[in-house]
Amino acid sequence: MVATPPVEPFSRPTEVLPHPLPRPVQHAPVQHAPVQHAPVQHAPVLSAAAPNMLGPAEPEPGGSRSRASRFAPWLVPLVLTGAVVIGTALIANNRGSTDQVAEPQREPVPGRTMITLGPPSDAVPPPPPLSVAPSGVTRAAGQPVPSAASAPRSVTPKRTPSTPAAAATTTPGKTTVVTGKPNTAGANLALGRPASASSQEDGRWPASMAVDGDAATRWSSEFSDPQWLLVDLGDVWAVSTVNLTWERSHATTYRVEVSVDGTTWTTVYTTTSGVEGDTLISAGKVPGRYVKVVGTARSNGYGYSLYEIRVS
Questions:
Q1: What CA–CA distance (Å, rounded) separates 54 from 270?
Q2: Domain-by-domain residue ranges, the chain?
Q3: What is the pLDDT of residues 113-124, one digit of tens each?
Q4: C-beta of residue 295 within 8 angstroms of C-beta of residue 226
Q5: What is the 3-state secondary structure (H, E, C) of 14-43?
Q6: Helix-strand-coil percent breakdown of the chain, rounded to 5?
Q7: Please, what's the largest Cα pairwise distance for the chain?
Q8: Fewer CB within 10 Å, N- or C-terminus of the chain?
Q9: What residues contact 44, with CB distance under 8 A and at least 6 apart?
């Protein structure tokens, strides 16, 4: 047998078109629904019994009148004239009612100021204008200018000068000079006399130990500034000298004052460089009964410590 070669399936070459062809659009047939019109209703025809105001009626075909026979041209101007009259009356009536209605009150709008014309009946009259008087005082118009006697004046307070040591007393018509008793013997006028102080340390070193004549005892104050020690001599003496014996905790800045009455004081000595030990002060025979030592600065952190005070 002769071998038959296999048959290849038939293939047709594909043609490539430059642009695809549009497909034809097929529209479905339009179905129109039958239109049914409602029967026309005509106005009723005037009966034969009513008088015919439009003239003799012509019979319509089929026993009815035609539309042309029912229209009268002379009714058009009559109807228009009546409409104009009625409209004019309505407009006039509307204007009259609008004029009689009061304008509604407007509500205030935030941020806007409403101004009402015409002042109210209870308005407060404005104050009179101010004028400046020649003296510089501002006053209202119509008021009298205050006189120089009634005008306020600047008063400067009087200063009383400080009085030195009361060396003299003055009485009406007579002046008495205080000189103080002389200490001819040179005795210690502070020995054993009453003494007081601003403070004392622990209550162990009172002010009396500074006038007891014992060089081993002392007055010691609290650890603060200022502090003072006062001695009452018992009488007004002509004080010549004041002798202070300071302990190691002494005053560096202090003053010594003398007074006749304990109120007015005369400073007889002041220093800012006080030292330990004896300090002799010359008072110049100033009259005085009270002698006071006032310390304002200490040499160390302890209090003021004074062994003895002697006055002659």
A1: 147
A2: 195-311
A3: 555 555 555 555
A4: yes
A5: CCCCCCCCCCCCCCCCCCCCCCCCCCCCCC
A6: 10, 25, 60
A7: 190
A8: N
A9: none
